[in-house]
Amino acid sequence: MKPYLSAIVLMGITLMSSTTTAAEAIASQQCEQPKVIFFDVNETLLDLGNVADSVTHALDGRDDLVESWFTTMLHYSLVSNAIGDYHHFSDIGVAALQLVAQQHHIALTQAEAKQAIAVPFGNLQPHQDVISGLKRFQDMGIKLVTLTNSSDAGIKSQLLNAKLTPYFDDSLTVQTLQIFKPDLRVYQWALKEMDVDAPQSMLVAAHAWDIAGAAKAGMQTAFIQRPGKHQLPLFGQADYTATDLITLAAQVCATTPPSLTTLDKHVDN
Questions:
Q1: E runs forming strands in the chain
Q2: What parts of the chain have a pLDDT lower than 50?
Q3: Considering the entire predicted model, what is its pTM?
Q4: How far is CA 178 from CA 93, 181, 201, in A?
Q5: Which pLDDT does position 255 carry in this prediction?
Q6: How many whole angstroms separate alpha carbon 149 and alpha carbon 57?
Q7: Is there a contact between 174 and 182 (Cβ–Cβ < 8 Å)?
Q8: Which residue, among 187, 178, 174, 181, has the nearest Cα to 208 in the 3D structure?
Q9: Are 243 and 127 contacting, i.e. CB atoms less than 8 angstroms apart?
Q10: What is the Cα–Cα distance from 156 to 146, expressed in whole angstroms?
Q11: How far apart are CA 17 and CA 20, in angstroms?
């Protein structure tokens, strides 16, 4: 081999080795992390099992109608967005329960519907993984914030009752904007409130529609696959998928890939 070709080959091997070493060094370091994590609350953090039981009882034991009630509630929250006629999420939930009852010829007064929803929603407990998972995120130095479709008073009561208040730095609800998630304005407002850029934030939720909205707003996303919850292929997959917060915390800490920009800077130096 001619001397100049040998030099080029050697230079290429050296550069390749240097790049590989740099990549390995970065990969072994602590992963890149979001500065702020926004959490959906109902179903994501709090177990709605007692709500499902109460709604089933109100609907004459028809547990097959619980999903219909929840879907109807979400549907009319989007109708509220579309026509600019805001109502508290809990009020939409009551009206949705009455509607489902009427559709299936079940007698249910407004007072009974309100009782069926208000009582169990006021006594929700966190899933077993939640407190340990939140503590792990806290240990990483990440700011934790709730972002929900609930009212200000509602989320305050829920977090207090579930003993989750100490784990959050702030709590945001759509009551301020009077627009429900997954409207992009909600996520954009939340980012502004927390003074964080979208790529440096993350939304954690057990709902594919919430994940889709946050992703469209440019945020990192994490889907918590609670029982019966799945992602919609049409909108792509979340950046992270985990069955619980403990697993997610480990993923965020250990498996976030370094960016190409970071790698380039490392190699250049």
A1: 36-39, 46-47, 125-126, 143-148, 170-173, 201-205, 220-224, 240-242
A2: 1-31, 257-269
A3: 0.82
A4: 16, 10, 23
A5: 56
A6: 25
A7: no
A8: 181
A9: no
A10: 10
A11: 5
